[in-house]
Amino acid sequence: MPRQIGGNQVLPPGASLGNGLTPEAAKDLGLPAGVAVAASLIDAHAGGLGVIGADVRGHGLSCEGQPVTSRLAVICGTSSCHMGISRDPIFVPGVWGPYFSAMVPGFWLNEGGQSVTGKLIDHMVQGHAAFPELQAKAAARCQSVYAYLNSHLDLIKKAQPVGFLTVDLHVWPDFHGNRSPLADLTLKGMVTGLKLSQDLDDLAILYLATVQAIAFGTRLIIEAMEAAGHSVSTLFLCGGLSKNPLFVQMHADITGMPVILSQEVESVLVGAAILGACASGDFASVQEAMAKMSKVGKVVFPRLEDKRYYDKKYKVFLKLVEHQKEYAAIMKGD
């Protein structure tokens, strides 16, 4: 007979558990017994909670006058999660959920995702022939390889916007299959526009094209969510990749939406603190705690003058997966 895991009492995030910290646990942790213990969240959901409810007044954002359901939290690191909430359940093909009160109590959660993002960028950069040269030059400047690549792109772009350097280079980023919105684990990565040269310029442009491909993947997820009934106007980014200004700007430019970065870069910890503050009774609700404890650090607006260029690249992006499926069908045929 199958055995039930856990009890049958379900509590929302931030609810106070039992009588607080037990004497035994308090002794192990060096804390007073009875300290409030909150019903917790998984890390990505805590990160979403830590950013999505921030008070955005005074930044000229359209979401200031819109409900919290107009916001999409993107937790981006080794992989990425895209979390949107709604008052009523919305079923989005290829996107997980809806889950009731899974992140913000009283709201339904949809969670899209990309299987590899930060890991893909590392893979593309570290596997390039010019990577040893990049390492040496970055070390000489006491920079990370990505800070060096960003500055190198600014150097070689000349008078054009940096994103235009990839006019002939396009990437489909599903080197580990597609989680959302295609939900196809058989898909592979694609790169079109390669040349014989393998110098530092080529590495920088391939890095840029990979970052753009990840942002185009986010755009594809947003379009699927909106087609199903979500209405998204603003992105809230957190996680390791949100510390990369190129990654953030490309997401703004390619989605056409402003990107909000939290004042506290470790948004997962903010989310956990919000839950604790609710369990301790400092706030009456998670929504109140989010508004008080989540702070806007920076707003990155899209370069709307570049919209036509990114719309064209997005068409190429969609053609890549269309062609990949055609190739697979040819190889499976007689």
From TrEMBL:
<keyword id="KW-0418">Kinase</keyword>
<dbReference type="InterPro" id="IPR006003">
    <property type="entry name" value="FGGY_RbtK-like"/>
</dbReference>
<dbReference type="GO" id="GO:0016301">
    <property type="term" value="F:kinase activity"/>
</dbReference>
<comment type="similarity">
    <text>Belongs to the FGGY kinase family.</text>
</comment>
<keyword id="KW-0808">Transferase</keyword>
<protein>
    <submittedName>
        <fullName>FGGY carbohydrate kinase domain-containing protein isoform X11</fullName>
    </submittedName>
</protein>
<dbReference type="InterPro" id="IPR043129">
    <property type="entry name" value="ATPase_NBD"/>
</dbReference>
<dbReference type="Pfam" id="PF02782">
    <property type="entry name" value="FGGY_C"/>
</dbReference>
<feature type="domain" description="Carbohydrate kinase FGGY C-terminal">
    <location>
        <begin position="72"/>
        <end position="279"/>
    </location>
</feature>
<dbReference type="InterPro" id="IPR018485">
    <property type="entry name" value="FGGY_C"/>
</dbReference>
